[in-house]
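Subgroup meeting minutes
Present: P.N., E.W., G.H.
Scribe: E.W.

1. P.N. recapped why we're keeping a running log of single-chain structure predictions: easier to compare across weeks, and new members can see raw inputs and outputs side by side.
2. G.H. added today's entry (334 aa).
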Amino acid sequence: MILTHFTQFYRFRVKYFSHYFKYSNSSINGALPLSVYLCYCNSKLCVCVCRDVNRCLMELCVMAYGCVTACARSVCGVLPYLPYSKQCKMRKRGSIVCKLIASLMCRAGLTHLITVDLHQKEIQGFFNIPVDNLRASPFLLQYIQEEIPDYHNAVIVAKSPSSAKRAQSLAERLRVSIAVIHGDAETDLLDGRHSPPTVRTTGGLPELPFCIPKEKHPITVVGDVAGRIAIIVDDIIDDAVGFVAAAEMLRERGAGPIIAMATHAILSADAPRILQESAISQVVVTNTIPHSSQKLQCCKIKTVDVSLILSEAVRRIHCGESMSCLFHNIGADD
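Output recorded in log:
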């Protein structure tokens, strides 16, 4: 869809890697179909969208490095969904994988990155290049206003306290109320680095205070949802277990139609089947990740096209125009 906007609306000349191939051992390579040395566009655009995140990253890096070695002046990467973006914090004794991916892209030769709705806004600081984090909220708001007739009777539901700011931002724009599903689930992750040595190697040190363990409270709904359209919002819908559990709780509280809304539809494993059998009436997602096969398994999935803002961002970068109009009335919590 992004390439369609290039050719139809902006009349850009689009070229693909005509000699892209894969070896028998699964390694990949590619060759540029034309010279990029001091070409008129001064930028080679690498649009990379696929469900296999590892292949997606390697294709992007191979293409970017190919453009750099061919003396392209700049290389702009377009990744509507940034892989590994959920691994932006250290858990247990693991690594911050998102920082590693950012360093890999920069070393491959990217000079600019365009993406949509990063899992955490702070991920932009992982990169040493400009990153434009576009927002899908205007398109999702437009869908609510046009496709949900009685949206004034809706309530925006945050699936967890961490999604409360996103839900509040949408609720303020729709002039509706907000509800939050609050409580500690059994799957809550701890920091994990909590195994001190059993024997102290040095003496004379005072005892360090330790944090009091959490008390698991039952999950509750904060806010009135009875008889109202419940719209559960989050940035990513993956295995769908959290959305389905939230929908069951909202139905017990007397909510009317329940709609799940997210930007990135990963929908891994049995997520389409789980959603199809759940109390959720609609699953509204954008096309940042291809999910045509998932739609065949779940008729509740509705797709919102966001390719227009991506193609406009690329056009503005290409023409050296300001990007500020793409963030008009966009808040920090969107």
